[in-house]
Amino acid sequence: MTEILNPFGKVALYPGCALDGLGKAYDVTLQLVAKDLGINYEKIEDYNCCGALEVKNVNTMAGLLLPARNLSLARQMGANAVMSACPGCHYSLSRTQYFMTRYPKLREKVNSYLEKMGTKQYDMQLLMIHAVEFIYNTVGPEGVKSRVKRPLQGLKVAPYYGCLYSRPKAYTLTGYMKMKDDPERPVFMDELLRALGAEVVPFESKTMCCGGPHVYSDVNTSLHLEARILKDAKRNGAELLITDCPLGHVAIESNMNKITEKYGQDLRMPLTYFTQLLAFAFGHSPEETLLTANLTDPMSVLKRYM
Amino acid sequence: MPIPNLEKPIIKGLIQKDKVIVDGVELDGTWNAFMIERTQTGYDQSVWDEIANTVEGATISLCWQCGTCTSGCTMREYDPNYSPRRFIDLARKGDKQSLIELQDSIWRCVSCQKCTHRCPKGVLVEEVVHSIHNYLLKHGLVKTDPGTVFDELFLETVMKNGGRISELILGGASAKAGFVTMSLRDLLTMMGPLLKSGLIKDLMKPSRVKDWDKIKPVLEEAMKEEVYPE
């Protein structure tokens, strides 16, 4: 096999609570896909919660210190880049890096607490990337295409990136570098899915928020936002909604019935993580890719490719 | 929205004279009216100062009131009173009363970051709005809203469960706090796949950070510290 050019150097995966929890299928299939494509990453061991979107709102220091500890652990592994599969984690880690770069005194404070915790000071030498960016920039659509064993010809998919995959540019650096996706109309996942033979339908809600952070506290808004995403996908003829965000994935999947009841329109549609679809197209079985363990039933659509 | 009271005293009063002679020339018509005070008063600068002195709110001073944040805002579509631009404007004027009137809206930010992303002036709009909200909470001007209750619950769950959470534990805690209402049908759809994949075990017992007992007190100490944007 030809050696794969990896522009990121050594990549550490920050799994976050999602990948060890309800997003397990994402974790498992990301490993499968990386192995098939011959790209390497190492998991950060003993990581802690990144604080998601909640902690920063109630305590400034906790909102910076929790992610900073993970960044410091990644540096101790000798990593040059931290990959997150969850855009929420990607955002939290990038945000911490932003504030630590911007305010030197704050950085000193965070670092002194890191030392007290028994971790090294964080030296600000990491690039934060998302799993989609990692696959796109290492093997790219061509690399993916060469691995496909089950071409998904005729499958209509709507790639849902979620809001934090590309925003805000100040934190995620989208739009500033070639290896980062377009900040308003991302295309990396579209191209990876096209490489599988699937047809990507036009999808206006690509980066629309699903109301995830308020899925419990402001449920009606969340349902409204999720309904809109499903409606856009459905109207454009998608059979599958493809996600790269565990929060959006779980929120939309678990609210599917409520949405249909509330809006009196059948908006039900199966969801898969993009890595699940990649792994399936690479020839892995539905059990191996945990496609059978999603709350919705993507196999109802995918069985014609078996 | 009515014009805030603070903007009313822009013109404090007029002096009108029947006969005005300047350099030997007599003025008539509108020329003989003078404003006593042309400066806007009644501003409470302390609100702006306090927000600008937080890590999140430091960029409030950069705002030009162009409204880009609000025109693309996700929440605005669902709540017409939701307006980051207006929150910033009122905070800078120190118009606490108007902010208090908007308390049922201001907490509803879903953190989608469109506003921050698009701001042409580099204002971290989402952070600033949370800073304004935190100011109101800190000074006891508004009641605690569901969003804040959930955020606190989240932090509490992280601290209690060894530095990590699982959606099920957080869901359980939320149910206890009265947030989640799950029908039997929802539970049944959830349970099938969870049992099938063996996920239920991982979810009920998230692994803890190894030295959490040592890390937790440091974090608690850090959380008490006042931090400034410097």
TrEMBL record, chain A:
Keyword Oxidoreductase (UniProt): yes
One GO MF term: oxidoreductase activity
Pfam families given in the database record: CCG
Record keyword Oxidoreductase present: yes
InterPro entries for the chain: Cys_rich_dom, HdrB/HdrD_reductase
Cysteine-rich domain span: 11-93, 160-247
Coiled coil: none
Keyword vocabulary terms for this entry: Oxidoreductase
Organism taxonomic ancestry: Archaea, Thermoproteota, Thermoprotei, Sulfolobales, Sulfolobaceae
Source organism: Metallosphaera cuprina (strain Ar-4)
Protein name: CoB-CoM heterodisulfide reductase (HdrB1-like)
UniProtKB/TrEMBL annotation, chain B:
Family under the similarity heading: Belongs to the HdrC family.
Domain 4Fe-4S ferredoxin-type: 98-129
GO cellular component, one term: plasma membrane
Species name: Metallosphaera cuprina (strain Ar-4)
GO molecular function: iron-sulfur cluster binding; oxidoreductase activity
Protein name: Heterodisulfide reductase (HdrC1-like protein)
Lineage: Archaea, Thermoproteota, Thermoprotei, Sulfolobales, Sulfolobaceae
Xref: SUPFAM superfamilies: alpha-helical ferredoxin
PANTHER family: HETERODISULFIDE REDUCTASE RELATED PROTEIN, IRON-SULFUR-BINDING OXIDOREDUCTASE FADF-RELATED-RELATED
